[in-house]
Every structure is written in C-alpha cells, then in structure tokens.
Specification:
mainly alpha; 3-stranded mixed sheet; two-stranded antiparallel sheet; BTB domain-containing protein
Length: 236
C-alpha cells in the first residue's frame, strides 16, 4: 500500500492512503525521544509532547533528530543545566505528564513552592498554559507587596506588580529602609508620594483608591511588563 505525505508538523508527517486511511490526529504517536541533561541527571522524553507545550522546545529540538543533534543520546544530550535544577525540572514534568501517567488533575499536586518553580520554568521556556496556571494558583497566597513586586518584575507578571504597589501604599506599617535594596530608590520615592496622597484622600466621600495613581506613576514600567507578558502568554 502506498501512502502520500500531505503535511508536516512537530509530531512528524501525516499520511493519507489511496483508500482514505489516515493518521489519527491525537493518537498516532511519534516515537522520537530527546535526551536532556540537567546537572548530572539524564531525562529521556517524547519530543512531540515537549514541542506541543513549549515554543522553546519546538525551536531547540531538531526534527528529525539525528546523531549530530543535541538530545540524540546520552553522549550528545541537550544540556539545560543553566536554566533549571534536576529537582525543578521534575516538578514541571510531573505537571506536563500527570494526565498521561495516572489520569490525575495536576493542578492539585502542587503547593506554593512548586508553583514558583513552574512559574520560573514556564516563563524561561515559554510554556503559556503552565505559566498562567502558576500565576492563578500563586496569587491568593501572595500577600506581601515586596514579594509581589519582586516576582512580577522577575517573571513579567504585570498584575503582581500592580497589586504589590497597592499593598505597599495601603499597608499600616511604613515602607522600610530594607525595601530600598529590593525596589530601588526611584520606586520608593514614588511610593512615599502616592502613600501620602492616598492617606489625605482616604476619608473623602468620593475616595476610589490608589489604582489610577499607580497607573500614572508607573506607566512606563507597567507598559513594558505588559508587552513582555503578552509575548510570554501567547497561546499555542
């Protein structure tokens, strides 16, 4: 029986026979695997699964893999040690492959520590679905303004930064000297100014909160974060 190639994808070629037989879109699985080295640990993983969730892996894993391609074997692995530890990578893989292994909901298998790792790696390797999941589950437990700003800046989560500034403006205790090293002098000065303005207006009958002041004072920073976040959150 002869098959004709009709299209190519990250999962390999799709074929249609003269009798109308064709590859199933979901369950005709590629058997190509990539070997990834992190620290001193080898991981052997299906190429199609990684490329499906991550633009980074789609670009970095050669298709088809040859003996010259990083990731072909243990002697020539794809080395990602600079991006993650082996323990961090396992956390991400537990999410990516959770439903494949035991049909469990991966969202209930992580605590805050694991979600922080997922946010880090999903931002580094452009995995929008897991990045969005991490942001969703982390936000309720993040109540410290400094931590919100720090994480928001580091991983381009605009609303973390907005909420962090709001918390710092509204908190009962004053902004501390130690915050300068984390947030920077320019930010601290703006926050002091917004805090004083907010305190003066807080008892007015038409008081609406510091949100608009935050948008004006930090327009450049928030605009830059939003742009980067749009790129990182692009759905595959």
């Amino acid at each position: 029986m002869e098959f004709s190639k009709t299209e190519s994808s990250a999962d390999g070629a799709t074929f249609v026979s003269s009798h109308g037989r064709h590859d199933d879109d979901r369950f005709f699985m590629d058997n190509a695997f990539v070997v990834i080295l992190i620290e001193n640990v080898f991981f052997r993983l299906p190429v199609n699964k990684l490329q499906k969730v991550s633009e980074f892996f789609e670009k970095e894993i050669a298709c088809p893999l040859t003996s010259e391609s990083p990731g072909f074997c243990r002697e020539n692995p794809m080395d990602l040690t600079k991006d993650a530890s082996a323990a961090e990578f396992r956390i991400l893989l537990n999410l990516i492959f959770a439903n494949d292994v035991d049909n469990r909901n991966p969202e209930y298998s992580c605590g805050d520590k694991e979600w922080l790792v997922v946010l880090k790696l999903a931002s580094t390797w452009n995995i929008p679905s897991y990045r969005d999941m991490a942001i969703k589950y982390l936000r309720p437990s993040l109540i410290d303004g400094r931590q919100l700003v720090e994480l928001g800046r580091k991983y381009s989560v605009t609303n973390f930064v907005r909420d962090g500034y709001k918390e710092l403006i509204r908190r009962v205790t004053t902004i501390e000297a130690t915050d300068v090293n984390l947030l920077g002098y320019e930010t601290i000065i703006k926050l002091f100014q917004l805090r004083e303005a907010d305190l003066r207006r807080r008892h007015a009958h038409n008081y609406v909160g510091p949100e608009m002041d935050i948008e004006r004072a930090f327009a450049e920073e928030l605009g830059g974060l939003t742009l980067r976040e749009t790129i990182l959150s692009s759905k595959r």
